[in-house]
Write a structure and sequence with these properties.
There is one protein chain. α5 packs parallel to α7. The protein has two domains: 181 residues, 2-Layer Sandwich (Nucleotidyltransferase, domain 5); 162 residues, ATPase, nucleotide binding domain (Nucleotidyltransferase, domain 5, 2-Layer Sandwich). The C terminus is likely disordered. A five-stranded mixed beta sheet has the order 3-2-1-4-5, sandwiched between helices. A five-stranded mixed beta sheet has the order 8-7-6-9-10, with helices on both faces. It has 383 residues and is an alpha/beta fold. It has twelve helices and ten strands. The chain is globular, with a radius of gyration of 21 Å. Bound molecules: 5'-O-[(R)-(carboxyoxy)(hydroxy)phosphoryl]adenosine (KG4) and zinc ion (ZN). Zinc ion binds next to α4.
Length: 383
C-alpha cells in the first residue's frame, strides 16, 4: 500500500511516501528561519507558506520516488492538534488529491504520529510508555499497540503549563538566541558539566505524573538577571549559528556553557523522574518511546537510555530528523490505521491546539458518515 503523508500543522511543510509502512521518499520545507525574527511562529505566515509550498513539493516528491499520483492508494494528513489555518491548508490539499484520484483519506493525530515515528526505523515493543516532548506538548502515554490497526493511546499525564520545548525556546529567547532555540541550548551545553544545584527540577515533589516547567523558566530568568552579560548583544541568524556555533559569539563561553548544561540537565532529570514514576505505576511495559522535537536533545537521550537500560526496556528514540515535525511519521501512522481498514470521509475536520482529537475514523472510510472508534481506544483526550 502506497501512502502519501501531508504535514502542515505548524511551521514545517512536509510530504512523504510510505510503502507498506516503510519510508520511500520525503521532502520537507522548513519555515523556521522565516519565523525566527518574530520569536515564534506567526500563524498567518505559516498558512500562506504551506499553501505556496505544497504544490511545489508534491511533484518533487513524486519525481524523487519515481511514482505518479495514480499510484497513491491513500493520503494521510495531520488533522491536529496544530495551528488551525495551517492544518486547513494541508487538509484541503489532501482532500483535493483524494477527490481527484480516488485515493482513500485518513486523518492522523499529529501527537500519536510523533510517538509512532520510531516504528519507521525499528519495530516498537508493546506495550510501551510513550513520552512526547515537543514545542507544544509534554505528554506521557500508555501505548497498547495493536496487531492490525491503529495503536491505542491512553493519556497518563501532561504539562500543566509550558511544554518542555517551550521552556527551551523561552530560555533561548532570554539569551537572545533565535526561535526555536532548543537545539542551540543543547549545542551550547556540549562538553560542560552541569551544576545540579543551579536550577530546580520543577514539580517533582508530588505524587503525580504531570509536568510543570514554568517554575524552571522563572528560575532561569532570575539567574540570568544576575548574569546579564550572558545574553548575546545581537540576535544571530540561524545561518550564523549553523556556521560558527553559539559559543563563538559570546565573550563568556564557559559560563554560558555551564548555565546551558545546568538547564538541560534540569529538564532531562525532571522528565526522567516522571518517566520512572510512570514505569513504576504501569505494570508489564516492555518498551519506552521518546518522541517530538525535544527527543533530539542529547541530555534527554542520555537520561532515557539509562532508564531503559536499567529496567530492561526496549528504547525507541527516533533519529534526529524524525524527532521534529515531518510527513514520514504522518504517512506511517496513517498506514497503520489504514491497515486496520480505517479511513475518513471528505468531511474530516481539523482540530486546533487545545481541543481533543477524536478517533472518528470509520471502517468504511470515504463516504461513510457514521463513526466507529476502534475497540478499547481512548477515544477522546485533550490535544
Ligand atoms: O516536535 P516539534 O518539531 O514541533 C512541535 O510539534 O512542537 O518540536 C519543536 C521543539 C522546539 O521547542 C525546539 O526548540 C525543540 O523541539 N528542540 C529541541 C532540540 N531540537 C528541537 N529542544 C532541545 N534540544 C534539542 N536538541
Ligand atoms: Zn510536532
Amino acid at each position: 500500500m502506497l501512502v502519501l503523508g501531508v504535514e502542515t500543522s505548524c511551521d514545517e511543510t512536509g510530504v512523504a511516501l510510505v510503502r507498506d509502512g516503510a519510508l520511500l521518499s520525503e521532502v520537507l520545507a522548513s519555515q523556521t528561519d522565516m519565523h525566527a525574527v518574530f520569536g515564534g511562529v506567526v500563524p498567518e505566515i505559516a498558512s500562506r507558506e504551506h499553501l505556496r509550498m505544497l504544490p511545489l513539493l508534491l511533484p518533487q516528491l513524486l519525481a524523487k520516488a519515481g511514482v505518479t499520483l495514480g499510484d497513491v492508494d491513500a493520503v494521510a494528513v495531520a488533522r491536529g492538534p496544530g495551528l488551525l489555518g495551517a492544518l486547513l491548508v494541508g487538509l484541503s490539499f489532501a482532500k483535493g488529491l483524494c477527490l481527484g484520484t480516488g485515493a482513500r483519506l485518513i486523518g492522523v493525530n499529529h501527537l500519536h504520529a510523533h510517538l509512532l515515528a520510531p516504528g519507521l526505523e525499528s519495530e516498537i515493543r508493546y506495550p510501551a510508555l510513550g513520552l512526547l516532548v515537543s514545542g507544544g506538548h509534554t505528554h506521557l502515554y500508555h501505548m497498547a499497540g495493536r496487531p492490525n490497526g491503529p495503536t491505542e493511546f491512553r493519556l497518563l499525564s501532561r504539562t500543566l503549563d509550558d511544554a518542555a520545548g517551550e521552556a527551551f525556546d523561552k530560555v533561548a529567547k532570554l539569551l537572545n538566541l533565535p526561535y526555536p532555540g532548543g537545539r542551540y541550548l543543547d549545542e551550547l551545553a556540549q562538553g560542560a558539566e552541569p551544576d545540579t544545584h543551579l536550577f530546580p527540577r520543577a514539580y517533582i515533589s508530588n505524587d503525580n505524573l504531570d509536568f510543570s516547567f514554568s517554575g524552571l523558566k522563572t528560575a532561569v530568568a532570575e539567574e540570568l538577571g544576575k548574569r546579564p552579560h550572558l545574553a548575546l548583544k545581537v540576535m544571530p541568524s540561524a545561518d550564523e549559528l549553523r556556521g560558527r556555533g553559539a559559543l563563538a559569539l559570546t565573550a563568556h563561553p564557559e559560563e554560558l556553557a555551564l548555565v546551558a548544561a545546568s538547564f538541560n540537565w534540569a529538564v532531562a532529570e525532571t522528565l526522567r523522574i516522571k518517566v520512572e514514576r510512570a514505569l513504576d505505576r504501569e505494570p508489564g511495559l516492555r518498551g519506552l518511546v521518546v518522541a517530538g522535537g525535544v527527543a533530539a536533545n542529547s541530555f534527554v537521550r542520555q537520561a532515557m537510555t539509562r532508564v531503559a537500560k536499567g529496567r530492561g526496556l526496549e528504547l525507541r528514540l527516533p533519529s534526529l530528523g524524525l524527532c521534529t515535525d515531518n510527513a514520514a511519521m504522518i504517512a506511517h501512522a496513517g498506514w497503520q490505521a489504514l491497515c486496520g481498514g480505517y479511513g475518513h470521509g471528505l468531511d474530516l475536520e481539523s482540530v486546533p491546539r487545545g481541543r481533543a482529537v477524536p478517533q472518528d475514523w470509520s471502517r468504511a472510510g470515504v463516504g461513510e458518515a457514521v463513526a466507529e472508534a476502534p475497540s478499547g481506544a481512548s477515544s477522546l483526550h485533550p490535544a
